[in-house]
Every structure is written in C-alpha cells, then in structure tokens.
Design goal:
Elements: H1 5-17, E1 20-24, H2 31-40, E2 46-50, H3 54-59, H4 63-67, E3 72-77, H5 85-94, E4 100-106, H6 110-119, E5 124-128, H7 134-137, H8 142-148, H9 152-155, H10 160-181, H11 188-200, E6 204-205, H12 208-215, H13 219-231, E7 235-240, E8 254-257, H14 260-266, H15 272-276, H16 281-297, E9 304-308, E10 314-321, E11 324-330, H17 340-348, E12 353-358, E13 363-367, E14 370-374, H18 375-381
Parallel strand pairs: 1-4, 1-5, 2-3, 3-4, 7-9, 11-12, 12-14
Antiparallel strand pairs: 6-8, 7-8, 9-10, 10-11, 13-14
Helix pairs in contact: 1-2, 8-14, 10-11, 10-14, 11-13, 12-13
Length: 384
C-alpha cells in the first residue's frame, strides 16, 4: 500500500487540537488504512471499533458503556451506523476527566454532517481524504493515475482490465447499497442513468432542467440526486464567481467527478486508447489537472470558483488565497497560447497571475502575468 504521510501528519495535528476528528471520504478510498497507519505510530492505548463488524456492532448496543471508560486514541469506523453517537461524544469529551481522543471515520452524508454540527459544534473538525494524488504515487505514474483514477484498489490493480472490473463493482455497490443509506429511495438503474448523465456534464455547466427532461423528473429532484453525489464526495460543484461588471456573467455551476477512473468507467472508456480517442478526453484531463492544482496551491475548495461571461470569456479556475487572485486555465496541448479570455480576465478580474496548465514538460512565459506550466512539472516544483 502506498503511504500517505501528508494526510497522516494533518490528522495528527488536528487530533492535538480537537477532541474529535472526522475523517471523511468516499468508500474504499483508504480511510481505514490511513487510520491504522496513524495508530501504529501513536503511543498509549489504541481502541478500534468497526461498526460494520457484527462483534463491534454488538459492543455498541450500549455506546456509553463501550466508550466511557476508554482513554488514548479511539477510532470508530463507519460511524454513520451509530445513531445518536455524536450526542454521546459531546458528553464524554466535555467531562473534566476525559483523556480520550476520538477519530471517527465515515461517508460525508448529510445526516452525518448534521448530527455532528448540532452536537459537537466547536469540538469536531473534519479532514477529507481524497483518492491518490501525484504527491503519493509519483509523477512517473501520472498517466496511470489519470486513466485509472486514485482509488487504491483501482490504481494498484495488476492491469487495466482488473482496474476496470473493480471500478464497475464499486459503482454497482455504491448505487445499490450506499446511496439508499443516504435516504435516496430510487431504483439503482435510474440512479446509474443519472450518474452517467453527470459524467457527460463533467467539466461543463450543470443544466438541471435538461437532465430532468431526459429522466422524466423535476429539476429539484435531479438537484437532490446531484447533492447526494456531492455529499458522498464523488462529485464536486464549482461555483461561478460574479464581479460587479456590466458584462452578463454565467451563473450555473460546473460539475466534476472527483475521480477520473470512475468517470471513465461510467463513460465506458476503460483503456487508454478508448480514452484518447474520445471527445471527452479533454474535459477528463481538465478535471484531473484541476484537482492536482488545488492540492498544489494548498487551498480549500470553498475558495475556488470559475468565471465566465455570455460573450465567451472564461477562466477555468479562480482561486482566492491570502488576498491574491490566481486564475488557472487547463489546455490539453503541448503549445498553449495567450487567448482573448486571458486578456479579458486579467483586466476584468484584476488577477495577480494566470497559470496555463498543459500536459507537456516545459515552463515558459506567455505574458507578464501569465505562465504556462506542464502538469508534471507543477506537481514536482509547485506553482510559485
């Protein structure tokens, strides 16, 4: 298994500051492995509970009895199965005699977030564990990471066929078991059609009315389906940014699947040759590169937007960090050039800089405030 020291170090810092830390992420992304790796380096008592294990589930028949005498690090996996647990954790961590720290693992479903925000306000912090990124796999495997995605068992599969088989099984299990747990009582076939439609919108502007017409549903219903995928950390919505300009600006969010391996499976692009010959390969690469750039810039997704006008000017990614405005364009070409959109964005948005990310290995200036950088080079060197 590939080590994940950046996330482990982050969890250790958070556990030193908060009595409860939530490690959230999609299923099979490596949360349990990361928690066990962290625990192996901890001193003192370590207690694990897996609430999908019948033995641990039985121990949790009375959660207070199971937890109140513990000290040290307590790890509770699949925490969404323990109804009312967060209210109990509030009581336990507020006791003057408390000597335990709690690391809770689970999917970031709406019920999980709502319980914790109401019961553990000021006592819990969340850390999202994404699929593998290039700082973990190495840039020499950047194409494999793009094609297979970053779920550990998909990325580390023996070959493309085994990787595709794993992803197909993941999608089926998620639709048949995991989404119903979020209260989405819809047939798996309908949800698969919906998720596939979302995959076709990857990198594009979301049009709920269009999807609703295709499925024979209402726009609010399809938006609730999309929110379920967002809450499950499998889809990300990129919010449009509005300036006080006279130009008409686009208001619809963009959607991206957080893992390109799942994107390719939904689009039935399970080989490199199929992907490279598909018209959606550019949008797929854009989403892959965007997730890497957000990691490289060390910013939260809440500080990330895109900008577009109805006349065609657009910036793929707009980042606000420490008072600086950074624009990022993604061009799947080895020879990117300055465009009218970039000139417009520099002027209208008063950007400090624009990076043009491309798949080549070179780094060169296009303008006083615009620099073209190969994705692999950006991953190795950063963007400063």
């Amino acid at each position: 298994m590939i080590p994940r020291p950046r996330h482990e170090a982050r969890l250790r810092r958070l556990l030193s500051q908060f009595p409860v830390v939530g490690l959230v992420g999609a299923r099979q992304v490596g949360k349990t492995t990361l928690a066990r790796s962290l625990a192996a380096r901890e001193q003192g008592r370590i207690t694990f509970f897996d609430l999908e294990d019948p033995t641990d589930e039985a121990r949790f028949a009375d959660p207070k009895l199971a937890l109140e005498s513990l000290d040290g690090l307590v790890v509770i996996d699949e925490v969404q199965h323990a109804e009312g647990l967060f209210r109990l954790l509030r009581v336990l961590v507020d006791r003057p005699s408390n000597r335990a720290r709690f690391l809770v693992l689970g999917s970031a479903g709406p019920e999980l977030l709502r319980q914790s925000s109401e019961s553990l306000a000021g006592r819990i912090v969340y850390h999202e564990l994404p699929p593998f990124r290039t700082d973990e796999t190495g840039t020499e495997f950047i194409d494999r990471l793009w094609i297979r995605g970053g779920f550990p068992l998909s990325f580390l599969a023996a070959d493309e066929a085994e990787s595709a088989t794993w992803r197909s099984a993941f999608i089926r299990t998620f639709l048949e078991r995991d989404l119903p747990q979020l209260g989405i009582a819809v047939p798996a076939t309908t949800l698969r059609r919906f998720w596939t439609m979302v995959a076709h919108y990857h990198g594009g502007r979301w049009n709920a009315a269009e999807v609703a017409r295709s499925l024979g549903l209402s726009a609010p219903t399809v938006n609730s389906y999309l929110d379920a995928l967002v809450d499950s950390l499998l889809v990300r919505k990129l919010t449009p940014w509005f300036e006080n300009l006279k130009k008409r600006q686009v208001k619809a969010p963009k959607v991206y699947l957080t893992d390109t391996g799942l994107l390719h499976s939904l689009l039935r692009l399970n080989t490199e040759s199929a992907l490279l010959g598909h018209p959606g390969s550019g949008a797929s690469w854009e989403g892959f590169a965007m997730h890497e750039v957000v990691r490289i810039l060390s910013v939260d997704w809440e500080d990330c937007y895109y900008w577009a006008t109805h006349r065609g000017a657009e910036i793929d990614l707009l980042v606000f960090d420490g008072g600086r405005r950074t624009g990022v364009e993604f061009k799947r070409t080895s020879a990117p050039r300055m465009t009218r959109s970039m000139h417009s964005a520099l002027t209208d948005l008063k950007l400090d800089r624009i990076f043009v990310i491309h798949p080549g290995g070179d780094r060169f200036r296009l303008h006083e405030r615009v620099e073209a950088v190969g994705l692999g080079r950006a991953c190795d060197e950063g963007l400063e």
